[in-house]
């Protein structure tokens, strides 16, 4: 995961330069630019890297004053023009706060679920919980014609066939709407496939014969034969139980 090492003073200087640029541009150029950034971070929130999403959100916060200054300048710089700019600041930052609250909804749900699940157990426990280091085994994606079932043994028997946008199994089971790449869990309990548009993951629990279609989630790895997933690259992976609770909410 890439970590930004830009000094704080340099980041503030770039932000001030961005504000000044939008203040010098006509407002009818700066405003569509900010709206395009807002649409990008809203529509591509599961595809953007964490650093890129944070950069766009910072650009919106710093760019709004520049656009409002350009607007009041275009209105003649009168008291009425400044009043319009202040009203625009109130409306604009209210909308930005709502946008950021919507983008951070998953983080709030995880923290609330973790707090509600952990604190009663910690309060009743006679001692503190044992620490556990979770190391994920990364998935190994394979094509359908190269996919071998770990439960069959080492003979490499392939009973999975990919055709017409889905997987077909020897026992008659079929899974549609997925791409040709798949991955078995280390012991073969789970079969994981990517959706056709690569915007989600399909998991088949062969032991319980349950199918889960999780749009917007990516498989990060395996721990104790259980899948762990994340919304985007760089985020903390979550166990499948937590992911299913979030989708139910």
Q: How far apart, in Å, are the first and last alpha carbons?
A: 29 Å
The strands making up the biggest β-sheet line up spatially as 1-5-6-7-8
Number of strands: 11
Largest sheet: 5 strands, antiparallel
Q: Could you say which overall geometry the principal axes of the C-alpha atoms support?
A: elongated
- Report mean pLDDT, rounded to a whole number: 78
Report the structural category.
alpha+beta
SS field, number of helical segments: 6
Percentage of residues in DSSP E strands: 15-25%
Q: Could you spell the SSE succession in H and E letters?
A: HHHHHEEEEEEEEEEEH
Helix content: 40-55%
From the alpha-carbon coordinates, what is the Rg to the nearest angstrom? 25 Å
Low-confidence stretches: 1-5
């Amino acid at each position: 995961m890439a970590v930004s090492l830009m000094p704080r003073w340099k980041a503030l200087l770039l932000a001030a330069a961005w504000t000044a640029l939008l203040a010098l541009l006509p407002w009818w150029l700066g405003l569509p630019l900010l709206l395009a950034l807002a649409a990008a971070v809203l529509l591509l929130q599961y595809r953007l890297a964490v650093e890129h999403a944070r950069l766009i959100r910072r650009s919106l916060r710093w760019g709004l004053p520049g656009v409002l200054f350009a607007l009041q300048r275009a209105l003649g710089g009168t008291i009425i023009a400044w009043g319009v700019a202040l009203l625009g600041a109130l409306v604009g930052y209210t909308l930005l706060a709502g946008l950021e609250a919507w983008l951070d909804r998953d983080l709030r749900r995880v923290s609330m679920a973790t707090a509600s699940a952990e604190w009663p157990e910690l309060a009743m426990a006679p001692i503190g919980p044992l620490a556990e280091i979770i190391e994920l085994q990364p998935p190994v994606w394979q094509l359908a014609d190269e996919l071998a079932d770990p439960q069959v043994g080492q003979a490499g028997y392939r009973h999975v066939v990919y055709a017409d946008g889905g997987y077909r199994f020897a026992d008659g089971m079929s899974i549609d709407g997925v791409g040709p790449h798949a991955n078995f869990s280390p012991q073969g309990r789970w079969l994981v496939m990517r959706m056709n548009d690569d915007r989600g993951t399909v998991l088949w629990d062969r032991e319980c014969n349950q199918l889960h279609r999780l749009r917007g989630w990516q498989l990060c790895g395996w721990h104790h034969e259980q899948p762990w997933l994340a919304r985007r690259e760089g985020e903390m992976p979550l166990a499948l139980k937590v992911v299913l609770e979030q989708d139910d909410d």
